TrEMBL record:
GO terms for molecular function: isochorismate synthase activity. It catalyses: chorismate = isochorismate. It is an enzyme of class 5 (isomerase). The keyword Isomerase applies. Its EC number is 5.4.4.2. Keywords: Isomerase. Residues 127-150 are annotated as: Disordered. Residues 130-140 have a biased composition (Pro residues). Belongs to the isochorismate synthase family. This is isochorismate synthase.
Length: 437
């Protein structure tokens, strides 16, 4: 077999693990690499390889580059489950012209579990100046957890131009919703998703395992993630592809929870289920996913009716989809085909994205893009990067790292600006609470 000398050559060694560590505890306190949902997930330590992408072809280029790297890799994997062997974690920007990098990161060490199965994978560079001794690779060991570190937390407010791009107050957001509604009424689009953002700052030595632990403990039905400074807990699976099967969860339509008042909480759920406006918005989102998946599947199944998904902070209208793939296509290629869904952009896609570019006074960065993982077979899980915040580099003068959180809502005919603002407040709550002192 010919060797492509432009492709990094990696060796991945996976071994079963008898220990059952707390994955969050093993994460790097300042640079965590984590993907976790209840009894499934992984934590990465160190970086064996980092790949960066940008532009309109970022998903396609990443999928092709990863395919070549996986083909050239030496993989010793007796466990043979999705997520064993060679694995990269990644995060991808929302917009084609975003200044934010889209990245795939191969950790030097990965500790993972799937229900009762645990494993550890070590990755080394065979093309490094000193790749190590030849012969059978050593069995990877379990890394030691760093001791608990510093945490003061932060409160969030309207971002400054220096911290996060153009600021956007409440009045400006409401004006944007009204303008989006006006355009929809005049036929420019059927749905436009508008986001707003808030900002804070944490000390450079802050232990980010604190907010990650809070998210993982409270949002068991969400993917808690940390990839390249993007930290959050997303309820929406963009795509999961393993062994020729794919699944997705579509969320669109929201009501704030009232767990302190069960009767009021039940009314909020029932209002969501019976709202013509919310059902209409949800139908847009489901159809966008069905349309994008159709060229790649033999059969496609969906929930008969949307159901109410209960999270600690909100009720969501949800639909689950399942499909059998018609051809070998990687999870990253499917993520690229699906992005951006109507749930985060609108309908029609091109018109909605153009409106977002005009009406949102900031670059979304990785918010509402894709975050997840892919293995050497192309299997993987990708979520929409929601309920999240992006941490920046520390300011040498202040010793603080900026933190920017974003949330949005779908504007359709008849949307009420005050309701849409309240929806963003509810959606920001997971992050504002996780990063609190």
């Amino acid at each position: 077999m010919s060797v492509d000398h432009e492709v990094p050559r990696l060796r991945a060694t996976t071994r079963p693990l008898a220990a059952t560590p707390e994955l969050v505890d093993l994460a790097d306190p300042q640079r965590p690499l984590l993907w976790l949902r209840d009894d499934r997930g992984c934590v990465g330590v160190g970086e064996a390889l980092r790949l960066s992408f940008s532009g309109a072809e970022r998903f396609r280029e990443a999928a092709e580059r990863w395919r070549r790297i996986a083909a050239a890799a030496e993989v010793d994997d007796p466990v043979r489950l999705p997520g064993t062997g060679l694995v990269a974690l990644g995060t991808f920007a929302f917009a084609d012209d975003s200044a934010a990098e889209s990245v795939l990161i191969v950790p030097s060490l990965l500790v993972a579990r799937h229900r009762d199965a645990w494993w550890v994978t070590e990755v080394t560079r065979l093309d490094a100046p000193d790749p190590g001794p030849e012969g059978p690779p050593r069995d990877p060991g379990l890394p030691a957890a760093a001791p608990a570190g510093h945490w003061e937390g932060t409160s969030f407010g309207i971002p400054s131009t220096a911290a996060a791009g153009a600021g956007q107050g409440v009045t400006e957001y409401l004006d944007g919703v009204r303008e989006a509604s006006r355009r929809i009424e005049h036929g420019a689009a059927e749905k436009i998703v508008l986001a707003r953002r808030v900002a804070g700052a944490v000390a450079a030595d802050s232990d980010l395992r604190v907010p990650l632990g809070r998210l993982a403990e409270r949002y068991l039905d969400c993917w808690t993630f940390a990839v390249d400074g993007l930290v959050g807990a997303s309820p929406e699976t963009l795509i999961r592809a393993t062994g020729g099967a794919a699944s997705a969860r579509v969320l669109a339509g929201t009501r704030g929870r009232h767990p302190e008042d069960p009767q009021r909480d039940a009314r909020a759920r029932d209002e969501l289920l019976t709202s013509a406006k919310e059902q209409h918005e949800h139908a847009f989102a489901v159809q966008s996913v069905v349309t994008a998946l159709s060229p790649h599947v033999r059969e496609l199944r969906t929930s008969e009716e949307p159901f109410a998904l209960r999270l600690p902070n909100v009720w969501h209208l949800a639909t689950d989809l399942g499909a059998a793939l018609a051809e070998h296509v990687s999870s990253l290629e499917l993520a690229g085909a699906l992005h951006p869904t109507a749930a985060v952009a609108g309908t029609p896609t091109a018109a909605a994205v153009a409106a977002i570019r005009e009406l949102e006074p900031f670059d979304r960065g990785r918010y509402s893009g894709a975050v997840g993982w892919i293995d050497a077979a192309g299997d993987g899980e990708w979520a929409i990067a929601l309920r999240c915040a992006q941490l920046g580099d520390a300011d040498p003068a202040s010793g603080m790292r900026p933190v920017v959180a974003s949330a949005g809502g779908g504007i359709v005919a008849g949307s009420d600006p005050e309701h849409e603002l309240g929806e963003t407040v509810s959606k920001l709550r997971p992050i504002t609470e996780a990063f609190a002192p």
